[in-house]
Write a structure and sequence with these properties.
This protein is mainly α and 124 residues long. Helix content is 77%, strand content 0%.
């Protein structure tokens, strides 16, 4: 196993989706390669599930320095979490824009639907 393959497989290893043989290969490589062994330990320290659970605290800067460093390292190691954070940030940007009313209403939305939404807001 190469280091590059180990980097790819380590996340699947932690999710439990690798075959027994592939798991054994990751473990063997991580035991022999200090860089991959460190990667495996870092990924075990903060799983993707933990990362997502505390994502708002991370993005808001509410984590202490040590914990923030662990999150930064996880982002550096994990392409899935980098993609998740990028998607999350984009979703939040679009939500803020939509709430400010800065998005144009698509032309395919029927006028009756727009009027019904407008009327329901008046009733609140």
């Amino acid at each position: 196993m190469t280091c590059k393959q180990c980097e790819v497989d380590v996340h699947e290893y932690l999710r439990g989706t690798l075959s027994a043989a592939a798991r054994a290969e990751v473990e063997r490589h991580a035991a022999e390669c200090s860089a991959c062994g460190d990667l495996l330990r870092r990924c075990q320290e903060l799983t993707c599930k933990d990362f997502v659970e505390f994502l708002n605290d991370y993005l808001d800067g509410d984590l202490d320095g040590q914990r923030h460093s662990v999150f930064d390292q996880h982002l550096s190691d994990c392409p899935d979490c980098r993609a998740y954070v990028a998607s999350y940030r984009r979703t939040m940007e679009l939500s803020v824009t939509a709430l400010r009313g800065e998005l144009a209403v698509p032309e395919e939305i029927p006028e009756r639907l727009l009027q019904a939404i407008h009327d329901s807001r008046k009733q609140r």
